[in-house]
Amino acid sequence: MPDLLCLCKLAQILQVSTDSLLGVTPSAEPALIAVDAGGTKTEFVLISHSGRLIKRLVLGGANPNTCGIQQTCDLFRRGIDSLMQCECQVMGLFIGGAGMISSNNAVSVEAILRDWYPNLRLRCMTDIYNVLAHADTPDNAIAVICGTGNVVFATKDGKLHRFGGGGWRLEQAGSGYDLGRQALLAALEHRDGTGPATTLTESVEQKLGGRVWDNIQQIYREDPSFIASFAPLVIRAWQQQDPVATEIVTASIQRLAHLINTAADRAPKAKQVLLGGSLLTKCEPFRTKLAEMLKPGLCPQMVSKPAVWGACLQCARMIHLPAPNFELFMETYQEEV
Questions:
Q1: Long-range Cβ pairs for the range 232-241 (8 Å, 24+)
Q2: Which of 27, 160, 211, 306 is 20 to 30 Å from 105 at the Cα level?
Q3: Smallest Cα–Cα separation from 134: which of 318, 282, 276?
Q4: What are the backbone angles phi and psi of residue 58, rounded to the nearest 5°?
Q5: What are the start-end ranges of the H helices in 135-242?
Q6: What angle do CA 138, 141, 145 make, to 5 degrees?
Q7: pLDDT band for position 92 (50/70/90)?
Q8: Interatomic CA distance for residues 144 and 111, integer angstroms
Q9: Largest Cα–Cα distance of the chain, in whole Å?
Q10: Strand ordering across the sheet containing 299-302
């Protein structure tokens, strides 16, 4: 009979539970953990192998490029430990996270999580896989995420290629952070007379609770999600035909369309363009204007299902289970949200 340490190592190598090695039939329900981690929020779900939502948890942003590897892993551990308190036999864990493709972040995060959860089959990848999970032909598709930051990926015969996605500090193509930053800048320029008048000034200052110049300290003190939270003000002003907002949004959509069209040139078999992230899924005019600027033959398609559901699908595939039932998942997910 192996000792406990040897038993755990055997289970990890064979990718089975310690219960199965000991011949014990678990009474707990088989379950999966799926995580969608972004720059603003991280969503954890625990679902049964059939798709029923058992528990859901939302924590803060977990982009390692912003938070650092250790802080990101600590946040993941908080969420995973909370879900694992349920009476379930967790069979696998899939994390699709922002910033994971940079600097081998996914490898570093996986290594730490494997030390913490040696008996759990897990995988950490870029959050674009949460979107690609919905593709008709995942090996040849284009996927776009526009949230706090943005990125475009194309798969060419199964190989992943990135376009843009340099992070919120560097992006100028439709990200929430970029739109929010430009809203604040437009209000500053209006107030000091170096820029045109815009309705953005009033809405920005209403959100800040005072004149924009008097809130510079707060603007610098807050995290990127605070800046991104001003993006809806730009979209609303654009829909009300404010000239400054119209210029900001039009330029952002043009840059995003350029990324997608470039991706299509590099991956000519990829015709389906999956659109994910709050800017694309929640703003129909933004999505429509983007579609008008794409090359002929491309088929833009909004990913209407929750991003974390894509992580659920990837988790099931990882451990060779049939796809969970989406309708069963949504019965409880909508109530929870």
A1: 233/180, 233/183, 233/200, 233/203, 233/204, 233/207, 234/179, 234/180, 234/182, 234/183, 234/200, 235/179, 235/279, 235/283, 235/285, 235/286, 236/203, 237/198, 237/199, 237/200, 237/203, 238/285, 239/285, 240/199
A2: 306
A3: 276
A4: -125, 125
A5: 176-192, 200-208, 216-221, 224-228, 231-239
A6: 100
A7: very high
A8: 28
A9: 80
A10: 159-163, 150-156, 140-146, 272-276, 299-302
Q: How far is CA 200 from CA 60, 96, 191, 193, in A?
A: 28, 35, 11, 14
| Two structure tokens written together for 212 | 């924009």
Query: Picking from 5-9, 68-72, 198-202, 317-321, which range would have the lowest pLDDT averaged per residue?
Result: 5-9
Interval 220-241 mean pLDDT: 93
Beta carbons of 238 and 200 less than 8 angstroms apart: no
Sheet holding 53-60, edge to edge: 53-60, 41-48, 29-37, 88-97, 122-126
Instruction: Quote the CA–CA distance of 157 and 145 in Å, as a whole number.
Output: 21
At 175 the pLDDT is 87
Q: Buried b vs exposed e over 111-120: b needs ≥16 C-beta within 10 Å?
A: ebbeeebebb
CB burial of 199-232 (b: ≥16 within 10 Å; e: otherwise) equals bbbebbbebbeeebeebeeebeeeebbebbbbbb
Is pLDDT at 262 greater than 80 in this prediction?
A: yes
Q: What letter does residue 210 receive in the DSSP assignment? A: S
Identify the pLDDT of residue 23: 67
d(CA 297, CA 142) in angstroms, rounded, equals 13
d(CA 288, CA 205): 29
Q: What is the pTM of this model?
A: 0.80
CA distance 116 to 102: 23
Q: Tell me, what's the pLDDT at 158?
A: 92
